[in-house]
Amino acid sequence: MKLINNSYKLISITLCLPVFLSACTNSTISHSIKTNPTTKVNEQVEVVTTSTILTDLTTAVAGEEVKITGILKPGSDPHVYEPVPADSRTLEKADLILYNGYNLEPGLIKLMNATGGKAKKVAIGEVVRYLELKKPQGEIVPDPHVWGSAENSIKMVEAIKNELIKLAPEDKDKFIQNADKMKNDLQKLHIWISEQIATIPPKNRKLITTHDAFQYYGNAYKIEIAGTLIGISTEEQPSAQTVKKLVDDIKKISIPVIFAETTINPALIKTVAEEAGIKLAENSLYSDSIGAKGSNGDTYIKMMVANTKTIVESLGGKYTPFKIDN
């Protein structure tokens, strides 16, 4: 009887052994997945954007479905930004790179074209038909500041949506929903800006700023760009003759105020204002970047609203708040 019991125990252990080993193995694999830092579960596609404006528009369309990394931080000037080694690594990891184009960000464009990797590169700003500007040397170049018109930004949002759908087709419906909401808000913004600028007395509808970043804004909303201290790029250094000419031009026209910009040192434009005997607007305009988080311009829409408020109130118009549906 004892022999039979021992035999029964041996058989039971033998039968249970594969189950035990299987359970141990599965437990080990499960633990390995949880603790191995190099393993990515439910990996998101990665999109890299250059300008802060593109980062904001892309984030609005992508929602939580895509990982967005913006290289430039709020307040950074894309014209003069010098890439750092970390930027190269960021670009190499990307599945898609969205940049403005029209040579807005020359340092990043050069790095992007030199960097290896699998990413598709798309110049989102170049879906907009450009305005021409003349550089000091007489060369005609495309104006890269296409976002100055909210209608242009609608075209950019549509292009971003299309690229995201190609990258992550399983999230197509979400991208379409987000893009439609953003385009609706931008259309309302476009109409609102037109209405606000129209309240400025006609003789005051003239804009003088630090650099030539508001041609699209002026063209879309019927306000004349009467002069700038420097041209299309903030890399340009104005000569004493250029400063004098702008001062003389300001004296010839009857306007109450001129404007500084958030991404450019205001010292020179302050000098221009003093020499011309004219006021410098209390608030600077957002030109090549959205504002820092928590500021009145920390999204593209808020940036455009803040600029319009500053322009309208400074030039004698009547500002009414912008409202969009949540």
Compact description:
This protein has 326 residues and is of the alpha/beta class.
Q: Can you offer a commentary on this structure?
A:
The protein has about 325 residues and is an alpha/beta fold. Helix content is about 45%, strand content about 10%. It has a four-stranded parallel beta sheet with strand order 2-1-3-4, sandwiched between helices. Strand 5 and strand 6 (about 140) form a beta hairpin. It starts with a helix and ends in a 12-residue tail after the last helix. Mean pLDDT is about 85; it is low at about 1-40.
Overall 3D shape: globular
Within the largest sheet, what's the order of strands?
A: 2-1-3-4
Count of helical stretches: 10
Main beta sheet:
4 strands, parallel
Taken as a percent bin, the fraction of beta residues is 5-15%
* Estimated helix fraction: 40-55%
N-C termini distance: 81 Å
Order of helices and strands: HEHEHEHEEEHHEHEHEHEH
Mean pLDDT: 87
Number of strands: 10
Low-confidence stretches: 1-42
Structural class: alpha/beta
Rg value? 28 Å
What descriptive keywords fit this protein?
10 strands, 10 helices, disordered N terminus, 326 residues, alpha/beta, single chain
Architecture blueprint of SSEs:
Layout: H1 2-35, E1 46-49, H2 52-62, E2 67-70, H3 85-93, E3 96-99, H4 106-114, E4 120-123, E5 132-134, E6 140-142, H5 150-167, H6 172-197, E7 206-209, H7 215-221, E8 224-228, H8 240-252, E9 257-258, H9 267-276, E10 279-280, H10 300-314
Parallel strand pairs: 1-2, 1-3, 3-4, 7-8, 9-10
Antiparallel strand pairs: 5-6
